[in-house]
Structures are given as C-alpha cells and as structure tokens.
Amino acid sequence: MATEVKSRIKKALAKRTGHFEHLVVVGDHRIVTDEPIDVGGENAGPSPQELLAASLASCTATTIEMYAAHKGWECGDVKVKVEFESAKRGAPTTFNVALCLPPGLDEEQVRRITEIATKCPVHRTLEGEVIFNESITIQ
C-alpha cells in the first residue's frame, strides 16, 4: 500500500483585481489583499504585511493548541497578538509576540507553552535564512 506524502512546497498566486487589490489563491482558498486608503488602496482586505503578522499569530496559536492537545492539557482560549513595524532595507524587523493564556495552567505548562510557541513553522521560517529564487515570464 503506497503512502501518500504531502508536498512541502506551498504555492500562492496573486492576481490583480483592483488598484492595489489582489486575489490571492492558496490551495483551495481565496484571500483578498489590499492596501489601506491612506497609501492609495481601497482597504478591501488586509495588506500583505498584515497577512504576515496574521500568519505568525495564527501559526503560533495553532502550534500551542496542538501541543497542549498532544499533552492532554486543557488549554482553553489561547490568544496570540503580533505587532511589528517594517524595518528599513538591511535592518532587522522586530516582531512583538504576546501570548494570552487562560488561567489554570501550572508553571511548567506555561514554560513549555512559551518555549513551543517559538517553534511554529512560520516563526522558524522568519528567524531562519531565507533564499529567494526569482524568475520572470512575459505573457
């Protein structure tokens, strides 16, 4: 019996639908992105940078919840708040990640959850070396 292996390659396609508005297709999902009105967009959806913060927040929360479930811990309502300001080229970007955990967890659970939060795939991607392979197609 053949075992199906999930591809580690993830794909996203952005297609312009307005001035700065784009329809982004990721797998079976569609997301509208746009820029805020004060920079010329229509604010029809989150900006790409807001999506980056959302990716880190949701990945961190999911990682915590999966870890707690694996340990059999009732971790209740986990909230993760991510703030960042875009850095200038060549300077590091600082992400402020705030975990809001429900009451009732003991010190060891809080320590482990805090440690596991930094191991989510998006966090590891952002803190690791990133290589861009770019190509151009004219259609």
Q: Structural class, from secondary structure content?
A: alpha+beta
Q: Helix count? A: 3
> Beta-strand level of the residues, as a percent range?
15-25%
Q: Sum up the overall morphology in one term.
A: globular
Any idea of the CATH class of the largest domain? Alpha Beta
Any overview of this molecule?
Strands 1-2-3 form a 3-stranded antiparallel β-sheet, with no helix packed on it. The chain has a two-stranded antiparallel sheet with strand order 4-5. It has 3 helices and 5 strands, in the order βββαββαα. With 139 residues, the protein is α+β, with helices and mostly antiparallel strands. It folds into 2 domains: 36 residues; 81 residues, K homology (KH) domain (GMP Synthetase, Chain A, domain 3).
Summarize the structure.
The protein has two domains: 10-45; 47-127, K homology (KH) domain (GMP Synthetase, Chain A, domain 3). It has three helices and five strands, in the order E-E-E-H-E-E-H-H.
